[in-house]
Amino acid sequence: MKKHIIVLAGILCCVFAFCSTGQGINSISKSKINYELTIGSGGGFTGGYEGHFIDSLGIIYSWKGIAITDSNKILFGKLNDEQIELVNKLIDSSDILNLDYRHSGNIISFITIKNDSKEYKYSWVGVSPDDNVPPNLRKFDAEIKQIIKQSINN
Question: pLDDT-based confidence at 20, cuts 50/70/90?
C-alpha cells in the first residue's frame, strides 16, 4: 500500500510540474483574439466542407461535415501569444472588415470572422483564391493558413 501511495505521489508531482510550466494545449493564454474565425472549403457533389475554427482564446479545431458543429470539431492546436497578436493585427490592418466579397459556385472556399456584435462572411469559387478575389482577402487567407500550420508546433 505504501508503494502505491509513493507511485501515485510521483505521478501527481509530474502532472503538476507539467501544468505549472504553462505548456500544452490547455494552458491559459495571456492574449485573446478579438474575433472567432472559421476558414474552410467544400461543396460540390457531396456538399461536404472541411476547415479550421479558431476561438477567441486561440484554440484551433479542425472540422469536417455539411456544416461546422460542436460535435464535428476536433482539437487541432493552439496559437501562442505571438500568433494571437498577429491574427489581431492581420484583421485590424488588412481592411478586411470593410470588404464585401461573397461569390458562390459548385466548390467554394470561405472565411467567417465573428465578434460579439457582427459576423463578416467572405467566399470565392474554388479551393484557392484566384486573381478575381481582392488582394487583401487573398493575403489574409494565405497568412491565416500559414499561422494555422505553424500552430502545430506550439
Answer: very low
